[in-house]
Design brief:
This protein is α/β, with parallel strands linked by helices. The protein is 24% helix and 28% strand. The radius of gyration is 22 Å and the shape is globular. Bound molecules: flavin-adenine dinucleotide. The site of flavin-adenine dinucleotide (FAD) has 35 residues, from helix 1, helix 7 and strand 22. Flavin-adenine dinucleotide (FAD) binds next to helix 1, helix 7 and strand 22.
């Protein structure tokens, strides 16, 4: 009997497993995860989980009943240690398992700052459920909060902490929030919303060390000689792909497990998907994305490939974040943008910022405007957006109205 082993029971791994059954695959499916938790969603952990607005059952991706109902074996507390590619066997902490196809959905891990004081009590990461729970519990008695890094996770957490009335300071080496993942305009807009909520920012700030007070974190010292007082600190300085160990078994790793456009490694029976995969994109560049949308898209395509049915085209990359009372959604490739255009009225707190290359739409951000986000994804997927020169004169109307007007 053919057998698919999926290493990693996160968003991507679970979607491959259930996607295989939905596509008629009848062989053995096993999902292994080194964590002891039933597969869970990560996005709520920096949002509703932190403020106790959601319980563990709301984080569950699929419970034990769903796994047994679909005849998928779930092995928790099971870490993959090595792969024998010739014999097609994975060695795990619970014994060896043979496979016909192996899917690596290993996720990523938070980048660690090599700082003195980074291991002090009160200094946290926010990536796993254990970390999110420890942070939530510690936050209950915190009196001041420091956040290192103004990326999505840092800002989402800052927003949750500020909502509790705590003084919050975000420290960021760049000159603005979300420097690599949002336009300058949106970044400025979001900064203002966070400041209205009581969050302070220290931009162009390099953290030098973390010092203690009575055995736990007390201060974050910056390289300009100033400091931020905080008895709880979250490090949100990005993530790195898991799976560097695959090179021991002859696979390639370069800022992620290297796969082709079909998500296959150089071994045709081994795929890598989601956060851990560095894949060839539509322009032939090596890309790694960290989002639920990306993991789900990879999972859908790999499940179809293994099941031997028609493989859907890659989805347009998309992402969402909820912070400072704003829903911000992105679609497309910000790294390809050469020119920006704002559509709609900022005063309405619902608008979009569009990114263009050679007069062509390549990316869009929607602020409190889910329906414009859907429109942007459709325009990008179908390649039907008006050009920048066509849209510019009508931009003030807002994207959807402008498109209607131009039609
Ligand atoms: C706090 C937080 C908030 C986020 N918010 C958003 C958001 O708002 N929107 C969004 O799009 N994305 C968000 N993300 C990112 C999103 O969660 C990830 O991109 C997504 O989970 C990636 O899915 P994955 O399957 O690749 O990896 P994961 O879901 O991380 O799963 C990987 C799994 O592999 C397991 N594993 C790793 N190595 C081994 C091994 N050797 N053996 C066995 N098991 C192993 C791990 O235990 C883990 O369970 C957020 C992430 C975090 C941490």
């Amino acid at each position: 009997m053919s057998s698919v082993i999926i290493v990693g029971g996160g968003h991507g791994g679970v979607d491959v497993a259930f996607g295989l059954r939905e596509r008629g695959y009848t062989g053995r499916i096993t999902v292994l995860d080194k964590s002891g938790f039933v597969p869970y969603e990560r996005p709520p952990m920096s949002k509703s989980w932190i403020n106790g607005a959601c319980g563990p059952e709301e984080l569950t991706l699929r419970g034990h009943d769903a796994f047994s109902g679909a005849n998928i074996e779930l092995m928790l507390n099971c870490e993959v240690l090595s792969i024998d590619r010739d014999s097609k066997i994975v060695e795990t902490s619970n014994g060896s398992l043979d496979y016909s196809t192996l899917v690596l959905a290993l996720g990523s891990s938070p980048r660690q700052l090599r700082l003195s004081g980074a291991a002090l009590a009160g200094v946290h990461h926010l990536h796993t459920l254990e970390q999110a729970t420890a942070l939530r519990d510690d936050l209950a008695s915190a009196t001041s909060v420091g956040v290192i890094g103004a990326g999505f996770i840092g800002l989402e957490f800052a927003s949750s902490a500020a909502k509790r009335g705590l003084p919050v300071t975000v420290m960021e080496t760049a000159g603005r929030a979300m420097p690599r993942t949002a336009s300058e305009f949106t970044s400025g807009y979001m900064r203002a919303r966070h400041e209205e909520g009581g969050t302070n920012f220290r931009f162009n700030a390099t953290v030098q060390e973390i010092t203690d007070q009575s055995g736990r974190v007390g201060r974050v010292n910056l390289s300009d000689g100033t400091y931020v007082e905080a008895d709880l600190v979250v490090q949100g300085v990005g993530a790195i792909a898991n799976g560097g160990w695959v090179t021991d078994f002859g696979l390639d790793f370069d800022n992620g497990i290297v796969v082709d456009g079909t998500l296959r490694t150089k071994d045709p029976d081994i795929f890598a998907i989601g956060d851990c995969a560095r894949f060839l994109d539509d322009e032939g560049g090596g890309t790694r994305l960290e989002s639920v949308g990306n993991a789900a898209d990879h999972a859908r395509r790999v499940a179809a490939t293994i099941a031997g049915i028609s493989v859907p085209l890659p989805d347009v990359p998309w992402f969402w974040t909820q912070q400072a009372g704003v829903r911000l959604q992105m679609a497309g490739r910000i790294d390809r943008v050469e020119e920006w255009l704002l559509t709609g009225a900022v005063e309405s707190n619902s608008f979009s910022v569009l990114g263009w290359r050679n007069n062509k739409l390549v990316y869009g951000e929607s602020i409190n405007s889910p329906s414009e986000h859907v429109t942007i994804r459709k325009l990008l997927a179908e390649n039907t957006a008006p050009t920048l020169s066509e849209l510019r004169p009508a931009a003030e109307m807002g994207l959807k109205a402008a498109i209607k007007f131009l039609a």
